[in-house]
């Protein structure tokens, strides 16, 4: 269970990216975060695994305060939480296998990992994960030779190598076309439903939100302006919608195919 | 939007002056009229091209006719020496007139709102510049072709120098016989023909040299036998003072080919006495020699060839050492010159700008100049070349490396950190894979440049094959120089290929 209390992030240049954000994520949820570009979604997700240091507030994971942990403790916390990114963030010139193996770094012995040595179990695990995401044919290709959808699957494979209990996904389908978007989100849904991983995912497309989310949080200028269940979002009104997306936003096509912002 | 209406209409303020007045202004200062018609950039371009062309033209005329005080003669002489200047002057005058007319129309069009662009003007100005360049560059295509003829033998030696690559050890067979000059009482007996040894026999055995006034000297008949066949025989003299010189007849050296049995016969006229000296009076014996140049033993690589090989190796070593030092020293510097690493605070930013500036200054000075500076410090030789190339490499590599560092994608770094990797693992898995390929590629590229540079760095004393090449060219030994040129060309070609292959792999 992830508990966030009064989280505030102010960047060095004075930008207030998050203001007093509090919410709780129970295990097994598929929580979607929506909000205009610049509303603080990425900042929020990165505060959760401490890629960004929160300015104020408290984050606790399974009852443990992780807001200020350091070193080995932080690494052990991070490896329980997989992360996937809008731009995949693969090492473009490295092979698919090497990118996937990198997901195991949090468990590996430092010296051996520096020379690219991993245990047999780790290697088997990688092959299994690669198989599961159907990228086995690409295994020895360079990451940048793959299509966008394939690259994102490598990203997921890397996260799965961590044996994560939770997955953070920062707009994982924003650089993909709609068909691929569904395929990637189905992958996440499967992990959520079959492997019982908690998923926190930021999304842009309203129809995707309605299709996959079990709960939704809306951010605007770093403040939570909306919280709703799957039912709520399906019945979302224009006023609620505008509250999240600002006055200028129009609900395209009145629903399912609509894109937001 | 109608397609026919293609003319660009720029809404603009009307001209400040009527067209006619604009012309007058442009006649006084070319371009001023256009400026007053609010065609500012057009006016400035016209003014600056007019001034540059006018300035260059005046300079060329002065240069060509500088010996004449009076301006009129100066100009007419300049036109006489360099007819192209006449054409340029006419075009310049046309340009002036055109500018005046252009001012009129620019002002008029300004008022009506439409304006044409000065493509014609630009081409005209470019043409005038081209002609000026032709004159200043002293371009003479005729010379190029007429003189190519005389240069051909030299170029031939440069292009196919391999005769010089092989040495055959040679021996000179010299057979001589004495003659007296002037004739005296006691005579030298005529040499008898020998059975199985080379000999020459001369008759008569005394005579007089050719006089300064042209009276020809005594004609001697030389008969020789048992010489090597198929090898030319040269006739030489050795005067009583021991000076040796070759016999000439009608301006040509005398050469005879012995017959199938090794016998020959030739008639020569005794040449001038080069020196009249006191010893000569006592000792009146001259020697006539028949010489054959015989090759003995195995052919072997010439001294020039081995020297060129040695120096070529030295050249490659210079390039490699400079690259090695350059890489080692530029990596730490490149971190200081990377903006993303150095924008932490004011101090690091200051270091960044200082390092960048120094690197830019060093890089803008050519390695040849660095080599000259280095020879002042450490003297001539390969070390100076290594220093010069190292200095330049550091500056060039540090800049390229730092740009590679600046180009690092932060994405993979945060992704690897998110997996729970520690600092070292993040560097090895997310940073190094990103910078290795550009680093390798830049390094190979530098290595390539350094070896090319090391082939010429010897011209200014930096060691390597350039030093030999420059020496041989000065000694007019074009064959040896040709060998050096070939070596350079072959090395650079192999290098080109190898570096392209390696860089391809690391792309
Ligand atoms: N490193 C940073 N330094 C300063 N401001 C930042 C930085 N990263 C993001 N911001 C600002 O914080 C706000 C939230 O950004 P972000 O979390 O990226 O929003 P989102 O992911 O919803 O588009 C934006 O105003 C953005 O400009
Ligand atoms: Mg974002």
User: What is the number of independent domains of chain B?
Assistant: 3
CATH class (first level) name of the largest domain in chain B: Mainly Alpha
Number of domains of chain A: 2
For the sheet with most strands of chain A, the description reads: 6 strands, mixed
Overall pLDDT confidence of chain B: 87
Q: Count of helices of chain B?
A: 17
Number of strands of chain A: 10
End-to-end Cα distance of chain A, whole Å, is 31 Å
- At the fourth level of CATH, the homologous superfamily of the largest domain in chain B is MetI-like
**Biggest sheet strand line-up of chain A:** 6-7-8-3-9-10
> Which range best describes the helical content of chain A: under 10%, 10-25%, 25-40%, 40-55%, 55-70% or over 70%?
25-40%
> Helix/strand/pairing class of chain B, anyone?
alpha+beta
CATH H level of the largest domain in chain A: which superfamily?
P-loop containing nucleotide triphosphate hydrolases
Outline of chain B, from the CA principal axes? flat
CATH architecture of the largest domain in chain A: 3-Layer(aba) Sandwich
What is the mean predicted local confidence, pLDDT of chain A?
89
Low-confidence regions of chain B: 1-10
Number of helices of chain A: 10
Could you estimate the helical fraction of the residues of chain B in percent?
55-70%
Give the ordered list of helices and strands of chain B.
Answer: HHHHHHHEEEEEEEEEEHEEHHHHHHHHH
